[in-house]
Specification:
The protein is of the alpha+beta class. It has two domains: about 5-170, D-amino Acid Aminotransferase, Chain A, domain 1; about 180-345, D-amino Acid Aminotransferase, Chain A, domain 2, CATH 3.20.10.10. It has helices at about 65-70, 95-105, 115-125, 200-215, 260-270, 285-290, 330-345; strands at about 35-45, 45-55, 75, 80, 90, 140-150, 160-170, 180, 220-225, 230-235, 240-245, 245-250, 275-280, 295-305, 305-315, 320, 355. Strands 1, 2, 3, 4, 5, 6, 7 and 17 form an eight-stranded antiparallel β-sheet that branches. A six-stranded mixed beta barrel has the order 8-9-10-11-14-15, surrounded by four helices. The two termini are about 30 Å apart. The protein binds pyridoxal-5'-phosphate (PLP). Pyridoxal-5'-phosphate binds next to strand 11 and helix 5.
Length: about 350
């Protein structure tokens, strides 16, 4: 679909009074408090219109709204930090923009133009910079979302859409080492499905198996391939990596694996550091054997929320396999520190990964 859009800067409709003073920004409750403003734009009659920055607030929508019935909706997630100089730093937003547009294609939705996604995000951060926490470990989570807005319950792709970017201060993320269960019954994504798209339905479908795993004492499930449940794909809503005999091993990007930006960043750093990297099929048997013969050194999930989440226990067919202690995980700890330093502007941005506002 066309993505034509003319204006370079979005008109700003500021709030009459900021809510910032009412919020404890040093101890934010993630996902429930939202900053003063949002980016908003509509796709109508084949073009983007009405792009603006406006006060965060409720929307008035039809009960027949297409996304509510058929789930034609996609989202993104990224974070903004503040450096010592008070500048706002956003990590790799172009990658989120490109990924959102790939998700849009898969879901019969229009691409969002750069002027709305990236310039809008920049203007929003400029306006709401006071909402970016300065405390170590805290950040402002940015949530772009695109959804179908036709007031029509016939089943077909919507012709109208709304794009928003809302933001929520996020507290210190205690990335405790997690206990995970290899899922051999339920499926997150299959070949030819929507696993590579950040579409709403994927997360709704994952809730029940994740809840079951939770009731059995596990934080997350490790998703396996939908056909045989023999190959590892992801860890919850994170990508998954292993260090085996000094090599970094991770499932290749297929159409059932979400192409994580953290994943790609970790792989880029590993390659720079001269660590052998293998992106390929990773079988459950290989991982269990590597745990048993002691060649598995590290296992971790990676994604925007935690950056790196160490895995301490992997359950398979009713057996809990304990992994080496997290203090000795040289690669995961090193790559975590390096990424945090880049995101927070404490080390040079050699890769051009940071947008500074
Ligand atoms: C968002 C997401 C990831 C991680 O992607 P990042 O870009 O690193 O945040 C991994 N897996 C799933 C299923 C996701 O939704």
């Amino acid at each position: 679909m066309t993505t034509e859009f003319a204006s370079a800067t979005l008109p700003i409709h500021p709030v009459a009074k900021s809510r910032l003073a009412e919020v404890d920004l040093q101890n934010p409750v993630f996902g429930r408090t939202f900053a003063d403003h949002m980016v908003s734009a509509d796709f109508v009659d084949g073009r983007w219109t009405n792009a603006q920055i406006m006060p965060y607030g409720n929307l008035s929508l039809s009960p027949a709204l297409s996304v509510i019935h058929y789930g034609q909706g996609i989202f993104e997630g990224l974070k903004a930090y503040k450096n010592d100089k008070g500048e706002v730093l956003v990590f790799r937003p172009e990658e989120n923009w490109k990924r959102m547009n790939r998700s849009a294609l898969r879901m019969c939705m229009p691409e969002v133009p750069e002027e709305i996604f990236l310039d809008g995000l920049r203007e929003l951060m400029n306006l709401d910079r006071g909402w970016v926490p300065t405390r170590e470990g805290c950040s402002l989570y940015l949530r772009p979302v695109l959804f179908a807005t036709d007031a029509f319950i016939g089943l077909r792709p919507s012709e109208t859409f709304k794009f928003l970017i809302i933001t929520s201060p996020a507290g210190v993320y205690y990335a405790e080492p997690v206990k995970v269960k290899i899922e051999t019954h339920y499926t997150r994504a299959v070949e030819g499905g929507t696993g590579a798209a950040k579409c709403a339905g994927n997360y709704a479908a994952a809730m029940y198996p994740t809840k079951l795993a939770g009731s059995q004492g596990y934080h997350q499930v490790i998703w396996t391939d939908g056909k045989q449940h023999q190959y590892i794909e992801e860890a919850g809503s994170m990508n998954i990596m292993f260090v085996i005999n000094g090599k970094l091993v991770t499932p290749a990007e297929t159409d059932s694996v979400l192409p994580g930006i953290t994943r790609r960043s970790v792989l880029a750093l590993a390659r720079e550091w001269g660590i052998p990297v293998e992106e390929r099929k990773v079988s459950v048997n290989e991982i269990i054997e590597a745990i048993q013969n002691g060649s598995l050194e590290e296992a971790f999930g990676c994604g925007t929320a935690a950056t790196i989440a160490h895995i301490r226990t992997i359950a398979y067919q009713g057996v809990d396999y304990e992994l080496p202690g997290v203090e000795n995980r040289r690669f995961a700890n090193r790559v975590y520190n390096e990424l945090e330093d880049i995101k927070r502007g404490r080390t040079a941005d050699r890769h051009g990964w940071v947008m500074t506002i």
